[in-house]
């Protein structure tokens, strides 16, 4: 392997430890729940999920799980207040 690639791999390892460098602005996920697989999307700071719970509550376990997995990496909702 040439030395410039080795340097890039080394840098990638360091970057991978520094989540704050990454902001996810859009995301499209197939989420395998216990009973079904759901399409979950994240766009402009807004989540959507095709599960029934989301339809009535605007939040669900699939979205909450992804928020935990991706903590600190998700773009903030546009025009949102700073409070959270
Ligand atoms: Zn859901």
Describe the structure.
The protein is 35% helix and 21% strand. The protein is of the alpha+beta class. 11% of the residues are buried. The longest helix is centred in the first third of the chain and has 14 residues. It has a three-stranded antiparallel β-sheet with strand order 1-2-3. The site of zinc ion (ZN) has 8 residues, from helix 2 and helix 3.
Q: Which series of helices and strands comes N to C?
A: HEEEHH
The number of helices is: 3
Structural class: alpha+beta
Q: How helical, in percent, are the residues?
A: 25-40%
Distance between the termini: 47 Å
What general outline do the C-alpha atoms trace? elongated
As laid out across the biggest beta sheet, the strand order is 1-2-3
Uncertain stretches: none
Nearest-angstrom radius of gyration? 17 Å
Number of strands: 3
Largest sheet: 3 strands, antiparallel
For this entry, what is the oligomeric state of its chains? single chain
SS strand fraction:
15-25%
Mean pLDDT: 91
Name the bound molecules.
zinc ion
């Amino acid at each position: 392997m040439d030395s410039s690639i080795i340097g890039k791999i080394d840098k990638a390892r360091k970057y991978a430890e520094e989540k704050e460098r990454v902001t996810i602005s859009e995301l499209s996920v197939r989420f395998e729940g216990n009973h079904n697989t759901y399409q979950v999307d994240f766009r402009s700071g807004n989540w959507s999920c095709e599960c029934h719970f989301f339809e009535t509550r605007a939040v669900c376990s699939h979205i909450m799980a992804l928020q935990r997995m991706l903590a600190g990496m998700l773009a903030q909702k546009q025009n949102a207040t700073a409070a959270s």
